[in-house]
Amino acid sequence: MKRWMYQSMIELGNGKTSSAALKRFAQSAISRKAIPGFINAYKIDLGDVDRPSGRYTSLHDFFTRSLKAGTRPVAGADLVSPVDGRVEVHGAIQEGSRFQVKGIGYSLAELLGSEQMAERYANGQYAILYLSPADYHRIHSPADGEVLKQYMLGDKSYPVNRLGLTYGKSPISGNRRLITELKTPHGQVLVVKVGAMYVNSIELTEFGKVWKKGGEVAHFSFGSTVALFFESGHLQFDAKIHDGDRIKVGEPLAYMV
C-alpha cells in the first residue's frame, strides 16, 4: 500500500512539463536568489568550493560547482570513489546477474539493456553510491581505462533517495542513465550514472576514449546515483567501506588481491 501511494504521488508531478519548468528556473538568473537558502537548508560546506557563492550565475551553476584544486587527492588504491556521496550498498552480484538495493532485486540485464553485457559481470561485485542535493555533483573516473562502450537508456526518472529506492518503480534500472564500460588494468568496469527526478540530465565533460583515475568525466543536474559493477575476479573492497558511510572523490574503494 505504501509503495502504491508513493508511486502515485510521484507520477502526479513527474511529467515533462514540470521537469522543464524546474530546469528553466534552475538555469535562470533569478534562481541566484535561492542559492543562500539552498546552502543553509542542506548545510553545505563552502570551504572547498571554487569561488564565493555570490559569483554563481544560477542555482544550476552552483549545483554543478567545481572544487578548488587539490581538495580531492587521488589515493593509490586500484579503484577509487568517482563521486562524493553515501555508500548505499555494496557486495556480490547474485546468480542470474541480479543485485539488491533496499530489499529490491534488480536485473543487471535490464539495467544495461543487454543480456550479453550482463553475463560478463554475473559473478562480479557492485557498489551503489548516492549523491544528495548537498553533494558535489561532478563525476570522476574510478580508474585509468579505455572507454569501450558508452550509451544512454531510459526516459522518465524517479527519486533515488532512500524513499525512492524503497518504494519507487525500480529507479536504478528504470531511470534515465548513461552507461560507460571501461577496460582497466584491473578488468572491465561499468560506471552507470543514474539520473534523478525532474532535472535528470547527465552531462559529459570528457569526450575522449581514455579516462584517467580521478579525472572529471561528467556531472549531474541535481541529486542522483552512480552504480559501479566489476567483473568476477579477486576484487576486495577497502576495509573502511561500509553501507551507509560517506565517501569522497578519490578515496580508496577497492583493490585487486
Automatic annotation (TrEMBL):
It comes from the Bacteria. It is an enzyme of class 4 (lyase). It holds the Pfam family PS_Dcarbxylase. Keywords: Decarboxylase, Lipid biosynthesis, Lipid metabolism, Lyase, Phospholipid biosynthesis, Phospholipid metabolism, Pyruvate, Zymogen. The keyword Lipid biosynthesis applies. Pathway: Lipid metabolism; Phospholipid metabolism; phosphatidylethanolamine biosynthesis. InterPro entries: PS_Dcarbxylase, PSD-B. Its cofactor is pyruvate. One of its GO terms (molecular function) is phosphatidylserine decarboxylase activity. Its EC number is 4.1.1.65. GO terms for biological process: phosphatidylethanolamine biosynthetic process. The keyword Lipid biosynthesis applies. Signal peptide: none annotated. This is phosphatidylserine decarboxylase. It comes from Planococcus plakortidis.
